[in-house]
Amino acid sequence: MRNLGPPSEIRRLAAPLSQVVDWGWLRMHWWIGILAAFYCVSGITVVRPDEVAVILRWGHLVGDTPALQEHGSGLLFALPKPIDQVVRVQVRHIWEVQVSTLNASSRMLEERSLDPLRQGYALTGDQNIVHVEMVARYRIRDPAEWAFYGPKSEDVLRAEVTSAMVRSLGEMGVDRVLSDGRKDLIEIATRRAQAGLDASRSGLELSSLELTRLSPPAVLASQFDAVQSAFIGAQTQENLAQAYAQGAVPQAQAETDAAIQSAQGAADSEIATARGESGVFRALHEEYRANPAVVRERLYRNALDRALGAAGDVRWVPPPPVGGRYHGFRITLNPPRGVNPSLDVNGSVSGETTTDSISSSSAVRPSSGDETSPDGNDQ
Q1: Structure confidence by residue, pLDDT tens digits, 28-58
Q2: Per-residue pLDDT for 8 more than 80?
Q3: Got the DSSP string for 215-241?
Q4: In the chain, which residues fall in CATH 3.30.479.30?
């Protein structure tokens, strides 16, 4: 029991309270010890494998470097509150936030009205209005920085993404934005938004940015659709023309090459033939100069052989003697039926030909059947 000391007025007034405290201490002192022990170990925190923890002591970050500020998975020993505050951060989790600051409200879409003062919008580089709705996915890259900006991280992310998208849209035309420029738009806006997050020391990393809606105002949708349809039609025709050109040009080139090769082959053949014939003629000319009688006789006989070979029937009709001597004879050639021979420069037969083989003169006379000699007798 405590020593109350000499009596006084204050002690006399506090005596009832002191008795209550003494009564409680005598009966509940071990409960108070247990509560004190629980309070002392309340600063022990279990950090899960996908988390990183930082400690705030009286509101200040503990540690001078990121390696000392961040604590990995396991048991973390810290002082109890309100001295230390342990903030656990899920660094491997991907968070998602919807950014609708540049999009029109559902009521405006139903009314099909255009009031930039009452709805979100953005201007393209050619002064056209578009509505944009995005989904930003991010993770916590720097837990130490995020520990101070954590409660406002989504607000910071929305502001940076909106600013980056407005700036990026202002550098592109509406036709490119609505057709084939979306990929470039997302890449540029993502890069600028990340630069803004780094400058604001938010500790966030923008993983991806998705455009869930990028369209002109509802009141102008039909006009934009018509332009888009025309653009797609032009692209389709251009693709068809390119496809046709890719097939027609090689085919024409192949035909041209084939015609050139054919003409070259024909020219080579004609030149070779001409050179061969000229060579034969030169050789014959040299031989004729050496033996003119022999060559002339051979040529004459060759001409007769070709003429007789093409004839169907050959009859030898001697002329009547003159002065008791024969000065020649006549040959009548009848070509075969169905054949219309012609006498060309090489000596082929045309019609019926009478040839004087002795005097080297020939006479052409129409003939059918038997010939009648000048004296009226059949020969």
Answers
A1: 666 667 777 777 777 778 888 878 888 888 8
A2: no
A3: E--GGGHHHHHHHHHHHHHHHHHHHHH
A4: 95-224
Residue whose structure tokens are 């991907």: 94
**Gap between the Cα atoms of 130 and 13, Å rounded:** 79
pLDDT digits (tens, 9 = 90+) for 175-211: 888 778 889 999 999 999 999 998 888 888 999 999 9
CB of 331 closer than 8 Å to CB of 358: no
C-alpha dihedral, 90 to 93 to 94 to 97, nearest 10°: -50
Q: Which long-range contacts (CB under 8 A, 24 or more apart) does 375-379 make?
A: 375/320, 379/317, 379/318
Determine how many CB atoms are found less than 10 A away from the CB of residue 341: 17
CATH of 95-224, one of 3.30.479.30, 3.40.50.2300, 3.10.20.30, 3.40.50.300: 3.30.479.30
The helix-helix angle for 182-199 and 153-169 (nearest 10°) equals: 140
- What is the rounded CA–CA span in Å between residue 111 and residue 90? 43
Cross-strand pairs, 55: 86
Peptide bond into 82 cis (omega under 30): yes
- In the structure encoding, which two tokens stand for residue 120, read together? 């979100």
pLDDT digits (tens, 9 = 90+) for 216-262: 877 777 777 787 788 788 889 999 999 998 888 888 999 999 999 99
